[in-house]
Amino acid sequence: MVFHYLRAINAENIKEWKIELTYKPDFIRQFFEPFVYLFPYFLYGYALLGGRYSEHLRSITGISDMVAYTFIGYLFIGFLNTACWAMGFSLRKEQWFGTLETIFVAPVPRWVYVAGMALHSTCHQGLIMLIQAVVITTFFAIVLQMSGIFVTLAVVLLMLLGLYGLGIIVAGLTIALKQWWVVSEALSTLIVVVTPIAYPLAVLPIVLRKASMFLPTTYGIIGVRHLLLGEELVVSLPTIFLRLSLILIVWLTFGMIVFLIMDRYGRRKGSLSIY
Amino acid sequence: MWVIVEEVRKSFKILLAYPAEVVFWVFSPLLMVIPLVFQGKALVGAFSSTSFGNLAGTDEFIPYVLIGAIISTYMFSAVWSMGNSFRDETYYGTLEHILSAPVRPVFILVGKGVYNSILSTSFVIVQLLICVLIFGLEITVIKILPIFLFLILLIIGLYGIGFMAAALTLMIKEAHGLLHMFEYILFLFSPIRYPVEVNPITKTISAFIPLTYALIALRGLLLNIKFNFWKNSIVLLVIDCVVVPLGLIVFHYIEKRTKSKGTLSEY
User: Fold this and answer.
1) I want to staple A166 with a disulfide (CB 3.0 to 4.6 A). Which of A83, A268, B51, B72 is the partner?
2) In a domain, A61, yes or no
3) Between A and B, how many CB-CB pairs are < 8 A?
4) Is residue A274 part of a domain?
5) Given CB atoms, is A28 within the 8 Å cutoff of chain B?
6) Tell me: the pLDDT tens digits for B77-104?
7) Domain boundaries, chain B
8) How many domains does chain A have?
9) Range of A172's domain?
10) C-alpha B143: how far from its chain's center?
11) Span A187-238, pLDDT tens digits
């Protein structure tokens, strides 16, 4: 049974690569976009500081290099796109293609389909991030601490699994709410605001600081930045691992419950084929 | 004329079927400013910066980015909504029907442009009201007329770009990613978030983007920053005179090409 599901997940992954490679300009674009997206944040920093280094940032984080600080944050938040856009978009896209009903009657549970999308988008996003990391670190001469790379990967993995929970929630809500991108965009905007991507938790108002404690991205990014750049931590590394593990259990469970409820709701109401 | 009116009516009906979208478009540009405010606070430890003032003409970066975010609503609308307007018709399964109707497709395109202009202007008015009521932005009555003048000049130029974006979608189908990238390029090279003078490349390229002149003028009017009124309005007018006919020609050519190649119904 497990092997059967794994084959279905992989088939979904391969199908997605095939569809993406059909639209070549769009496929190539995805490898350039992260650079165009990132530079305005650097230029904004340069305009504010009149240079690359900030004394104030150093006093609150231990890092003075604005470019390195901002880059690490935005590099790993790229996985938020995996959750909110790729996984959330998956069902709506099938609906547009006219294949949603067909794949929903396939002899596998619905979550297998979403897991296939998760596998595909993780591979794709990982490849984009790897290229982005190599180019930006070379171009801006950013020196990363490579001694903790395996711990860094473990933090990223836990963050990613937590974000899968979010992706499953968005995919589920898409069945009921249809206009998926509003859900995706609203959720990702709110998470980007609360997550300490280009600023430390210390500058957030207390309410937002508390809210950020429930997000896997908060622990993922402060953990990774601590390991790669030496940012001073507000919580210890073992606490980061513990909280990330708890968050991923809660988010994945909650995500599956929302997805199953929405799936049943969609079929009972007969709204599966409604746009 | 009726075609344009009916297109606007139809588009509003579709929009009202998804009311969450309206709320999203009103608040999204304002939400985008929040990370920039926190980033600024983390980098300089205050809400004003002398370095920023040397480039932008104002030390206070929050009103600067706030106005940039509000006016970028037009950019989103022109590039994203116009670009996707025909792609959406493909997904709805209605593209062939509207393009085979006994009217010139350019009127349908203009109808979509008028709809997006009305919608974006409504969003911008609500956003400005939020800024006046919550953030204490001051707009004197005497400035309303020049503000509208620059907004109209901006809208015309951006919809010229929007016509080309719509044509692009007809040609390469899955263009939403490319449109997103184009949006990011405009973000990079226009003074939406920062003064483009910060880098010689952004400064040079920004000279060809209508948003640059509109933002300089609108910030000048709203934040009392010195700017050349006539230079900015004449440059915007010249850009409009070039971009709009070019957009219509490109759309007309690609629409004909798509029909003759028989790729209209392809996904």
Assistant:
1) A83
2) yes
3) 130
4) no
5) no
6) 777 777 777 777 776 777 777 777 787 7
7) 79-267
8) 1
9) 2-269
10) 21
11) 888 888 899 988 999 999 999 999 999 999 999 999 999 999 988 888 899 9
